[in-house]
Amino acid sequence: MSKHIANLISQGEHQQLDFKHSISDSKKIARSLAAFANTAGGTLLIGVKDNGNVSGVNSDEEFYMLEGAAQMYCKPEVKFTITHWEINGKIVLEVYVKHDPKNLYKAPDKSGKWKAYFRLDDENMVASPLQVKIWKAIRYRKAVQLLLTPQDNALLDFIRTKQKVTVDECSRAAFMSYIETEKRLINLVVLGVVDFKTTHQGDFFEVT
């Protein structure tokens, strides 16, 4: 087995690595492509089972499924590179997707609605409305204030005290509306003084 592929398989699935036994649904694989492009980039190994065993694929058929997923079921189209590996007579496809900070990629969910996806650990997750707002603010560089107001500094002090907070907690602590608090927190993220984190427990803000 190629040392490169063996090394990837030994890592197991994680934020930047996903194993696929095969591609049977272009819409489903489109979610993986969009999630990698939106997060930190990553690699799909097609023809590898979840347990790391090499099953192999029909390279032509899988390529056309990938191409269809990227072109028809990703908005905008996700660009990828593909490398064919032959391992013990079986074909494994290494599909690399680069992170693209300039675009926000969407793919259809199970009901056909277009959603933005991201990688969390080894899963493709639907981005929350708040996460999408922050992505758009960072990607498209909405104009933000350059000087921190007293309200902003109060929010920063509260976040420093609590270490990890939600918009709702900040709203109550600052006696501001949820919408105004959300707007100020997004500005602080764009300015780089606050970090936004998404976990399985929800969305949180931390001081950088």
Can you describe this structure in just a few lines?
With 208 residues, the chain is an alpha+beta fold. It is built from 7 helices and 9 strands.
Please provide a written account of the structure:
It is a single chain. With 208 residues, the protein is an alpha+beta fold. The protein folds into two domains: 3-126, Methyltransferase, Cobalt-precorrin-4 Transmethylase, Domain 2 (2-Layer Sandwich), CATH 3.30.950; 131-207, Arc Repressor Mutant, subunit A. The protein contains seven helices and nine strands; from the N terminus they run αβαβαβββββααααββ. It has a four-stranded mixed β-sheet, sandwiched between helices. A three-stranded antiparallel β-sheet has the order 5-6-7. Helix 6 packs across helix 7. The longest helix has 14 residues, at 59-72. The protein is elongated, with a radius of gyration of 20 Å.
Structural class: alpha+beta
Overall pLDDT level: 93
Helical element count? Answer: 7
Query: What do we call the CATH homologous superfamily of the largest domain?
Result: Schlafen, AAA domain
CATH class of the largest domain: Alpha Beta
Largest sheet: 4 strands, mixed
Which fold name corresponds to the CATH topology of the largest domain?
Methyltransferase, Cobalt-precorrin-4 Transmethylase, Domain 2
Distance between the termini: 43 Å
Shape label: elongated
The low-pLDDT segments are: none
Query: What is the ordering of alpha helices and beta strands?
Result: HEHEHEEEEEHHHHEE
In terms of DSSP E residues, the strand content is: 15-25%
Count the domains: 2
Q: Care to count the β-strands?
A: 9
Strand order of the largest sheet: 1-2-4-3
- Specify the CATH architecture of the largest domain: 2-Layer Sandwich
Rg value: 20 Å
Helix content bin: 25-40%
